[in-house]
Amino acid sequence: MTPNRTGFTLIELLIVVVIIGILAAIAIPKFANTKEQAYITSMRSDLRTVATAQEAYYNDNGDVYATSTTSLGTTYKASAGVTIRIYSVTASGWRAFASHAATTHTCRIRFGSTISPDGAVVCQ
Q1: pLDDT > 70? residue 116
Q2: Which of 28, 59, 94, 99 is most buried, taking the most CB atoms under 10 A from its CB?
Q3: Strand (E) or helix (H) holding 49
């Protein structure tokens, strides 16, 4: 008569731990890349919002563009961690630059430029 065994052997438990470790090693880098893409998407969205706010400012203020985000008024607020800088403001266009505190990637948008199409958000 064989004894009645209950529970798992040490080998079975070690195999389960190794499998969980392999799955975690695969999932963690994928999660980090997803966060990076979310930061870039947030910067893109904020630059498009700045473009809309700039056009409203241009129409409301006698064909003049805002020189900073604070000039756009209290209705504009960037996403958490995103910094927007408006520069190269002329009578015919402007440029804006976005950065995020949690990534080294940056994005920019241009209006009134012959270098890239108006309103195209470019990220590096």
Answers
A1: no
A2: 94
A3: helix 10-60
Token couple for 28:
């963690």
- Residue 70 burial (C-beta neighbours within 10 Å; 0-12, 13-18, 19+): exposed
Please give the order of strands across the beta sheet that includes 94-100: 82-87, 94-100, 106-111, 122-123
Measure CA 2 to chain center: 63
Please give the single-letter amino acid code of residue 11.
Answer: I
**More reliable by pLDDT, 60 or 75:** 60
C-alpha closest to that of 84 among 116, 109, 58: 109
Total length of the chain: 124
Only one residue has tokens 């995020």, namely 100
Count Cβ atoms below 10 Å from residue 85 Cβ, excluding itself: 13
